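Risk mitigation, structural track. In case the binding assays with zinc ion fail to produce interpretable data, a predicted complex structure has been prepared as a fallback.
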Amino acid sequence: MNFPDLHRHLGGATHPRILWGYITRHGIHTAESARLQARFATYEDFKHEFDRPFKDLDDYLTVHHLVEALQAEDIPYFTHRAVRGAAVFESVDYLELRFNPYKRTPASLPDAERRALMGEVTRQVILAARTEFPIQTAFILCMDRGFTPQLNRAIVELAAQTPEVVAIDLAGPYQPGGPTPSEWRELYEAAKAKGLKTTAHLAESDPEDVHPQLLPLLDRIGHGIQIALHHAELLPELAERRICLEVCPMTYLRTNTLRDIAELRPVFERCQHAGVEITVATDNPALHGEVGKIVNEYERLVRADVFHFNDILHYAAAGYRAAFSKVESGLTVK
Ligand SMILES: [Zn+2]
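Fallback model:
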């Protein structure tokens, strides 16, 4: 059986062994590799940074920053390995890969040069994702909560100009300097006006991170579990707007959002009752070890009695239905 994965970050999609292989082979040539080789003496030390317990979502995201800086040095190398690995080792046949193009440009360059490079970086990711393995890949560009409205607007413009980019996302930790709620609305309105699909990281670990004013502008929500857990009164609106939740179980354990996967049972039950679609996704499998693969996410949910084994077909099919690009024939669960 094959699976769709609609929520996977490029920064969390390459296994630490691939990153370390790059660091040790190229470390003498590139600044970021050399920096990481100086920081981590052995592969075990490096891998521990990925496997260690994280305090919270912000701590979890520090590993993203480490990976993003390294990936900026050779984006095709890491993208190609992430995509073919998903096809071969996880039986993913439809993947939506998301990334922030600005963060994949060298941090040593002036801001204007980094902005100018975003299009080239995006083109490189799209080209490197092509593989002879049986997987269809679409791309989502991430805006960032800490970026100015102008920089986020440039990411929307780039997404609209790139046919392979199907949607826009909002990611990153909350921090000063980012858009206000009304500016977020304007950014999403601009994306919709240009024909882009939309998703946003919302209601992931903070029960109050909901922002109902964005709902009319969203096609999907990254996570959104706190809506089902603490604001179930909004579920009928989600159903009416046909907003699908991208639920990534392992992330909630790694960020200490949930203590037990069984805590997702009311999320699935309430969404099913209200008619809200859910797709199961991986978020950052490289930060979750062997247990982060998509098949393990489904197995974890079945073992915790969140849903029945036979429901795997339903939730896989929901992922294909909520896909942002047309899924090629022959891939979907009937
Ligand atoms: Zn995510």
